[in-house]
Amino acid sequence: MKEFMYDRIYSVVNIVPPGKVATYGQIARIAGRCSARNVGYAMSSVPSESDVPWHRVINSRGSVSVRSHGEQCTAQRKMLEAEGIVFSIGGTVDLDRFGWEGPPRDTGSDGK
Q1: CB burial string 30-65: b at 16+ within 10 A, e below
Q2: What is the pLDDT of residues 88-97, one digit of tens each?
Q3: Structurally, how many domains does the chain consist of?
């Protein structure tokens, strides 16, 4: 069951484009049937050889989340900066500027 949920989460994270970030809660809403905490667990479980862009998922305050050992992931920040994401002096990302709007809505065959 957990693997199926993680697969749904990874599928959503895989479509977050370079230069954009998404929040844990946003990914949870899009993936469905999971919580922001589940997304966090899924991101921490991404295998090192995976190409899932886990680094594009940040918290709702626009910050890189503190890890279980109490520190922020400097590698995550560096990866985001390499994609053009700018952090404020306080270490946050402007979600209005760099936040991902989500997948395009399916308008159906009638264009409505």
Answers
A1: bbeebebebbbbbbeebeeeeebbbbbbbbeebbbb
A2: 999 999 999 9
A3: 1
